[in-house]
Design brief:
CATH topology of the domain at 164-296: Rossmann fold
CATH class of the domain at 164-296: Alpha Beta
Number of strands: 12
Strand content: 15-25%
Shape: elongated
CATH architecture of the domain at 164-296: 3-Layer(aba) Sandwich
Helix content: 25-40%
Order of helices and strands: HHHEHEHEHEEHEHEHEHEEHEE
Strand order of the largest sheet: 2-1-3-4-5-11
Radius of gyration: 24 Å
Distance between the termini: 74 Å
């Protein structure tokens, strides 16, 4: 079956070809009712204006889409965006940013309308998984799909990810090797509708503790608090409510560990004298509180993902389409041998 063209959309929607073109390129010149009718018709006919003769003569839009599960202001997302933008900008591309693809409504709106509303030459997905139906919808754009720290590579043309599970396994193992006997992993609750890469860190912690239990006594637990702006205070309250304060704390991320170091000090718990604590990310201010942590480089991941995208846009074959990067332990001053 031949792919629908702009004339087919115009005839099916009962409008002129120029109206179809304006609905995509100059929506301000078209009524909302007419534009909705055009977009619905285009969606039904699987029409993408970026692949039509009325788009750019090059057949490219010089725009890419970047999907993020949370706000761009988080350290990880800011660094990923900076990396992608540094490469794509130099290549002449603009970035259409989609934040908070973490609700059913936002996901439905994006995945069902991108093929017709946004004309892009590549789609980046950062830190969350997309299901088979969503992958199918993205494939309708007929452009490369690149994952950045996604939980799986299935459905992606290329990807680069940090090994979150093995990284947290290393972090927990470090605390265990220091002789700690009561270790708590603090984390925010996962989003029910979304499989995020950060969730793998908890599995790494559990795996390290279960392995250690085979040869020694170890009291460990996972302390989960609600997501949101109050997650640090919730974690603090949960820790202080424990029958026995832990001698080691393994944090899901530095954004949790750094304020905990400061807040626990206000309650008389000082690191490393009273407990060891380790974070994950090596984000800004980690060195300010001398935090031992696991280092990753999301900006570099963004750069490498963007280079993969450019190669795929040029229809080149990638030698290594999917890469996994190992985080590494950064020893500072919030951990020490357990002497209890």
């Amino acid at each position: 079956m031949d792919k629908a063209g702009i004339r087919d959309v115009a005839e099916a929607a009962g409008v002129s070809i120029s109206t179809v073109s304006r609905a995509f390129t100059r929506p301000d010149l078209v009524s909302e009712k007419t534009r909705s009718k055009v977009l619905e018709t285009a969606d039904r006919l699987d029409f993408n204006i970026s692949r039509s003769a009325t788009a750019l003569k090059s057949g490219q839009t010089y725009r890419v889409a970047l999907l993020m599960n949370e706000d761009i202001t988080s350290w990880f997302n800011t660094q990923v965006f900076a990396g992608v933008e540094s490469v794509m900008h130099d290549a002449g591309y603009d970035i259409s940013l989609y934040q908070h693809i973490d609700t059913a409504e936002n996901r439905r709106d994006f995945f069902t309308t991108l093929p017709v509303r946004r004309n892009v030459d590549a789609v980046f997905v950062a830190s969350f998984a997309v299901d088979a139906e969503e992958i199918g919808q993205l494939k309708r754009t007929h452009v490369p799909i690149i994952g950045i720290n996604t939980p799986t590579t299935e459905g992606f043309d290329a990807s680069i990810s940090i090994d979150d599970e093995n990284g947290m396994f290393t972090a927990a193992q470090h605390l265990i090797n220091l002789g700690h006997k009561h270790i708590v992993y603090t984390c925010s609750a996962p989003v029910e509708t979304m499989h995020s890469s950060i969730d793998a860190r908890g599995r790494g912690f559990i795996r390290a503790c279960e392995a250690a239990e085979r040869t020694r006594a170890l009291d460990w637990q996972v302390l989960t608090v609600p997501r949101g702006t109050e997650f640090v205070e919730s974690t603090l309250s949960a820790l202080l409510a424990l029958d026995e304060f832990p001698d080691a704390i393994c944090c899901q991320m530095d954004m949790m560990a750094i304020p905990l170091v400061l807040r626990l000090g206000q309650y008389g718990y000082h690191t490393p004298q009273d407990y060891s604590i380790i974070g994950f990310d090596d984000s800004p201010y980690a060195d300010t509180v001398n935090l031992t942590t696991m280092r990753q480089n999301p900006r570099d991941m963004g750069v490498r993902a963007a280079n993969k995208a450019l190669a795929l846009i040029r229809e080149e074959t990638l030698d290594t389409p999917h890469e996994i990067v190992q985080p590494h332990l950064v020893l500072r001053g919030t951990d020490r041998l357990y002497e209890g």
